[in-house]
Amino acid sequence: MLFSPSTSLVLLAGSFASLAAAQNDGDFSPPSYPSPWMRGGNGWQDAYAKAQEFVGGLTLLEKINLTTGVGWEGEACVGNTGSIPRLNFAGICLQDSPLGIRFADLNSAFPSGMNAAATWTTRLFKSRGNAMGMEHRGKGIDVQLGPVAGPLGRVPAGGRNWEGFSPDPVLTGVAMAETIKGIQDAGVVACAKHYIMNEQEHNREPNGTVKFAYSANLDDKTMHELYLWPFADSVRAGVGSIMCSYNQINNSYGSQNSYTLNYLLKNELDFQGFVVSDWWAQHTGVASALAGLDMTMAGDQNLASGNTWWGSNLTAAVLNGTMPQWRLDDMATRIMSAYFKVGRDTARVPTNFNSWSSETFGYIHPQANEGYQQINYHVNVQADHARLCREIAGASTVLLKNVNNALPLKKPKSIAVIGEDAHDNPGGPNSCGDRGCNRGTLAMGWGSGTANFPYLIAPNTALKEQAARDGTKYSNVSDNYDFSAVTAALQGTDAAIVFANADSGEAYISVDGNTGDRNNLTLWGNGDALIAHVASQHPNTIVVLHTVGAVIVEEFKNHPNITALLWAGLPGQESGNAITDILYGKRNPSAKNVFTWGKKREDWGVDVVYTPTADPPQLNFKEGNFIDYRYFDANGIEPSYEFGFGLSYTTFEYSDLKIQKMSPGPYEPTKGMTKAAPTFGTIDFNESNAEFPPGFHAVNKYIYPYLSDDVPRDQVQNWPEGSLEGTPQPKLPAGGSAGGNRQLYDVMYVVTATVKNTGGVKGVEIPQLYLSLGAPTDPRIVLRGFDDLILDPNESATFEVKLTRRDLSNWDTASQNWVVSNYPKTVYVGASSRDLPLSGTLA
Ligand code: NOJ
Question: Which GO terms describe its molecular function (predicted)?
């Protein structure tokens, strides 16, 4: 049974607790109405005041224009809202991606989100966000479509995991918050996506196989403790927009799910910005607006279909009273508040690039081939971001194995560099659109989460330069199948460095039969055989992996001839320079795993559902909170390499755990009622004023707010109960402030420990704090804090984590609130999720 807002049973708000408890098998997503209106709290006051004034001065059609995209390829950006010509206000430009500007030139191609996470360094999360934000700003982009917390990374083969950060919600939450602050400090609105449960690519949208997108089915506790967590952090960081996902959640579409949008996001998390649909993820008109959607993208119902769910239809819905004015005003005010909050009113420059053509001259309305003029101004926005790209790429390279002092290399007499993955793509780094092929070295996955490379330094290029500087004899082979050439190149060398990769991306492109999600967890292009061949020939084989996530390394990791193993992820444009820094010890490795490396595919306990057995396909998240390391721990599965693990060229020692109890006072559930829904300005209900102006030239397939037919009146309306109500509404006990009840962020304990560099070289250690919440139903441990400590030999520093009330709590379905259970709580501190020398009990 499919539930949409218009067909759902209507239940009273008071019965949520029992509903939420029941919604664990996917057949029900409880309705929640009305859609909460903005209140302008938590740092949004000024922006809200400006937005109110702005929206109050708009006509109905102008308000509608802010909410609706102009259609695919209607304007320069991947998404563009309508404009307000009367005020000289250009439509809002939304542009991919989470790792740099998609479809542009003279921009940077940053390391992936997953790589950023692997640095475990908040400073770098924020600098990366800020540098990306500055580039978007320079090109005249209003909204950067990133960062990503969905997928979180439930299944290792999930195609878009690398766009996000880590399957751990705390690491992802910190990375989301810092990235958002960085982007928004640059004067650009960040967009946290894809909300929510967008955990695989197969059947994420209706397609030739299924009529309906898959439904991710999960319970209320898992929702709060795992998947919603990083979105709560995003809201707390002040994110301006959130993109709702293609998939369904408990059998209600992400972009019209009143429970996830109205109840969780806008009420409980007190989100003040706007919700934008993923491109064509909207499936209804008024119903989606009442369920909490504020902006539709790309605006047309389907790619270049020329029709729309909103635009003229929303105009008609307001005129005939189906859509209350307060809801439209709230949509427009949320959009403009985000705009003012990040300072777009002063930061904005005209959009000076065009997604659909790299030529200097072309069409401003590419879909219609209309308006020939200059469309690309080739503005160079790279600044000195190459340095940051190189730093993050190096700081995200995990040293997994290093024996016999294989690394760092010290002016070796001769080396051989083996593997296609070390070499340039012969067609150039951008030769496949949206990186939809796997040729040459892999530095980003494929899909909309990409950017054009300004250049891509392949490992072969940088290593060869290093060899030239050192007087090292250098040989290289790029053909993964030519084993005799490989054998010949290895002769007489001190070290063999072999590169291999595994790629994935977004579902609209299939690469080598992988429709977004990976078909397996093995290396691509004969990589496993290549590594085995080199290792069989060379006693000093160093393996470097560029992969989108875990691959099965168990076969070769224990090979005695493999002396070193490194994971470099998707390092972006500075790939070769960064890996050279690491291999030669110019940078001491400090990165740690952001996911678990299982020994075999089954070890994760969950997988992509490739072949649906129902329509909509039912993806039952029965494992609950137990994904990645939590699943391995709970089931006694030994991984190849654990979450949080990574070596350095030096060593560290942990000591002196101290726990200090704070007294923030008891937790009070939020009470009271909201104000009534405000409206801004008056609506002109004269239909003839909403028609196309006389003589108006309509661009082909462009979406307009003007009425196209007579407004239907007096039809039977059957909207969910309460959905049109603008009266004061009850606040939720766990809500009331950005990211939930503000007392959730009270500090309950301060935990400190001493970390000492006990080796011979300077290094960075990433100490980690894990917590056992204590109940038999809880994971063995969960990550709660981390830091990056830069230490000279013999130097010590203090690692400190502030544990908040949320950190110590479980979600209680019955009271719809966070509760600290009576089970004993233990903290663990150490170098990885399985190397935790210090522990203590919380009193
Ligand atoms: C679909 C993708 O899921 C989303 O991440 C992206 O921002 C939009 N397309 C626009 O390209």
Answer: beta-glucosidase activity
Cα 842 to Cα 568, 667, 747, 767, 811, distances in angstroms: 37, 18, 13, 19, 19
The preferred substitution site among 72, 93, 102, 145 for testing ligand 1, maximizing ligand atoms within 8 Å of CB, is 145
Q: Could you write out the DSSP letters of every residue in 132-154?
A: HHHHHHHTT-SEE---B-SS--S
Q: How many helices (H) and strands (E) does the chain have?
A: 21, 31
- The pLDDT value given to residue 11: 34
* Structure confidence at residue 711 (pLDDT): 87
Q: What is the pLDDT of residues 344-400, one digit of tens each?
A: 999 999 999 999 999 999 999 999 999 999 999 999 999 999 999 999 999 999 999
The count of other CB atoms within 10 Å of the CB of residue 624 is 18
User: 532-550: buried (b, 16+ CB within 10 Å) or exposed (e) per residue?
Assistant: bbbbebbebbbbbbbbbbb
pLDDT at 97 (0 to 100): 98
- pTM of the predicted protein model: 0.97
Question: Which of 568, 585, 593 has its CA nearest to residue 786?
Answer: 593
Quick one: 79 exposed, middle or buried, by C-beta within 10 A (0-12, 13-18, 19+)? buried
Using CB atoms within 10 Å of the CB of residue 61, give its burial: 0 to 12 exposed, 13 to 18 middle, 19+ buried: buried
Structural tokens at position 249: 């959640």
Q: How many CB atoms lie within 10 A of CB 14?
A: 8
Distances in Å between the Cα of 431 and the Cα atoms of 107, 355, 437 are 16, 16, 9
What is the predicted pLDDT for the residue at 240?
98
- CA 644: distance to chain centroid? 20
d(CA 809, CA 83): 46
Q: Of 195, 222, 390, 170, which Cα lies nearest the Cα of 293?
A: 195
Rounded distance from Cα 593 to ligand 1 centre (Å): 27
Output the pLDDT for position 837. 98
Give residue-wise pLDDT tens across range 412-438.
Answer: 999 999 999 999 999 999 999 999 999
CB atoms within 10 A of CB 491: 11
What was the pLDDT predicted at 4? Answer: 34
Q: Can you list the residues of the chain whose pLDDT is less than 50?
A: 1-24
Q: Between helices 459-470 and 575-583, what is the axis angle to 10°?
A: 50
Contact (CB, 8 A) for 168 and 229: no
434 within ligand 1 shell (Cβ under 6 A)? no
